[in-house]
Amino acid sequence: MIAPLQPATLAFRDDGTPFSPAYDDVYHSAAGAFAQARHVFIEGNALLARWRDHRQFTILETGFGLGGNFLATWAAWREDVSRCERLHFVSIEKHPFHAQDLRVLYERIVADATIAPLAAQLADAWPMLVPGLHRLEFENGRVVLTIAFGDALELLPKLWLRADAFYLDGFSPAKNPDLWSEPVFKALARVAGDDATLATYTCAGHIRRGLEATGFVCTKTEGFAGKRTMLTGHFAPRWRVRRHEPPLPQPVADKHAIVIGAGMAGCALIERLAARGWRISVIERHTAFAREASGNPAGVFHPLLSRDDSVASRITRAGFLYALGRWGALEQAGLGFARTRSGLLHLAESDDEAHALTEAIATFGYPPEYARGVSAADAQALAQTALMRGGWFYPLGGALDPALLCTALCTMAGERLTWHFGRQAARLARHSDTWEVFDEAGEPIARAPVVIFANARDAARVAGLTHAPTRIVRGQLTRLPAQVAPHLAVPLIGDGYAVPLGENTGLLTGATYEVDDDDRSERAAGHAENLARLAVMLPAARETLASVDSASLSGRVAFRCVTSDRLPMIGSLADEAACARDAAALRGAWPLDLPRAEGLYGAFAFGSRGLVWSSLGAELVAAQIEGEPWPLERDLAESLDPARYLLRSLRQGQAG
């Protein structure tokens, strides 16, 4: 269970230097945050000489603080004509500032005209203060800030990346010893790339000895602003200090990928790959994209609350917030998709549940813009109709048109897309360093070094996976015409959901949940079931709904693909044949131990949460392909690993 965040307190010393009352220490030298960042970290890691040799360059920082080091690095990157193509900056902060406090700080400490506009962009993009990883993009995605809110001792071992440089920054070892401890140094060694460098303001002897014990070679160099010395160093272990090498990009001569399936998952992948310069060949069995569940008239998006902040809740929180950021970028580019802005109301199933989860909101310290408990009276005021009980309100939740979102995502990819509509992928074969996909008639469709399966229930079959069990769930939606549709001011979920489709347009409600049922025809019984659930949620509409002839209604049938643990399959596919051959040796394996199928990835089985999970899933797959820092903690990503069922079979001696 994740501890609630304790935000930083805005305070200054008499000389105007930002100060932390919690640690009784300053955030930077009185000589200036940006001058300190340039001397200690940018020059200490020789960034201008080193990042020019990299297509992408990754920096890991142990304390974000005010963001001065990030802003100075971003400014240096912008000014350097020989800069790397893509800069990743990963940082951890246990006590983040509120966005408004950052604005106040920047107004006081930023005098550099080149940094001021960058500081304004950072403050505007600053994430909601909830635990976990938050991914922010600047410079059209060429500068990426991944900031982890939480305790470094807990989060550092969960980051998965290959660091080219380390900024060891934080309050002094005397004030904050945990950040300068052996577990931290070991965590750095686990993710250090070849010839990774480090720099830090401190030069304490025990810090140097601790770093050297984990594989770093350190040197004292000239300090900043009258401080005699500081430490720089590089990673050069004399013995093996880690079990697994940190991630590297997929070795490809041609940045060309095949995406199988053009629903929400596939379209999100298209946009994320195209943003990194990839060409994408899309294979879709229908004659257009978004023809399965992604073609529903509306879908809802919202967080998932739980009493213990479960794995599913943490993944959904990350996915929800990341999706909001990506959708905002699409809208800024002028691409709309009928997104509601009034929030979403979640009705509790019982008074006990309402009380327990409202307590959980307080316990985890969620900000009110993320979720807040509402009484029955407050819920009715939000919905503008009588309701069965209270629940929770998600101010940033809502509903949107999934097909229009798919259109926006594909529009962003532009000419990088090649479509293969009306072709059913049936099998694939490996030729040297590329994969070729064939249709049911045995005719080739497309060929590329990378293939990503986003084709829901067909994914495991086409990929030849035997340890990726999924099932289908039939869901029938009901569309109520305006003359009988109850008035509802916001989208509503509970036992089912209800989405107002606009003035004089009616209301969408549903959906049924019928496992292993592949009947595509609409059923009057399904419409009746949807009306009955809606009548429970909206008691004022019971009489009207009871008078509706369910056989006269229309709707839509779509199918959800689900796993037994209700989590999607996202990431690199396992080489099942190699795992079977080495089953005995892999019986005690962990996910990173498993042989992987070169160039094969999956993003499927999103169930009813495709809107919330697909953007983050696409970013995770793209990051794995490119060897970038993962946008999600490794333990959470492993909960989504398509090989997780294979791993269980290996551990139980049932594979091979």
From TrEMBL:
Q: Does rRNA-binding appear among the keywords?
A: no
Tell me its EC number(s), please: 2.1.1.61, 1.5.-.-
The UniProt GO MF terms for this protein read: flavin adenine dinucleotide binding; oxidoreductase activity, acting on the CH-NH group of donors; tRNA (5-methylaminomethyl-2-thiouridylate)(34)-methyltransferase activity
Query: What Pfam family does this protein match (any one)?
Result: Methyltransf_30
Transmembrane feature ranges: none
The record's section on InterPro entries has:
FAD-dep_OxRdtase (IPR006076), FAD/NAD-bd_sf (IPR036188), MnmC-like_methylTransf (IPR008471), SAM-dependent_MTases_sf (IPR029063), tRNA_MAMT_biosynth_bifunc_MnmC (IPR023032), tRNA_MNMC2 (IPR047785), tRNA_S-uridine_synth_MnmC_C (IPR017610)
Its required cofactor(s), as named, are:
FAD
Gene Ontology CC, one term: cytoplasm
Protein's job:
Catalyzes the last two steps in the biosynthesis of 5-methylaminomethyl-2-thiouridine (mnm(5)s(2)U) at the wobble position (U34) in tRNA. Catalyzes the FAD-dependent demodification of cmnm(5)s(2)U34 to nm(5)s(2)U34, followed by the transfer of a methyl group from S-adenosyl-L-methionine to nm(5)s(2)U34, to form mnm(5)s(2)U34.
- Does Protein biosynthesis show up as a keyword for this record? no
UniProt keywords (A-Z) are: Cytoplasm, FAD, Flavoprotein, Methyltransferase, Multifunctional enzyme, Oxidoreductase, S-adenosyl-L-methionine, Transferase, tRNA processing
User: What name does UniProt use for this protein?
Assistant: tRNA 5-methylaminomethyl-2-thiouridine biosynthesis bifunctional protein MnmC
Which intervals hold domain FAD dependent oxidoreductase?
257-623
Family note:
In the N-terminal section; belongs to the methyltransferase superfamily. tRNA (mnm(5)s(2)U34)-methyltransferase family.
Q: Where is this region: FAD-dependent cmnm(5)s(2)U34 oxidoreductase?
A: 260-656
What subcellular locations does the record give?
A: Cytoplasm
Q: Which residues form the MnmC-like methyltransferase domain?
A: 116-234
Lineage: superkingdom? Bacteria
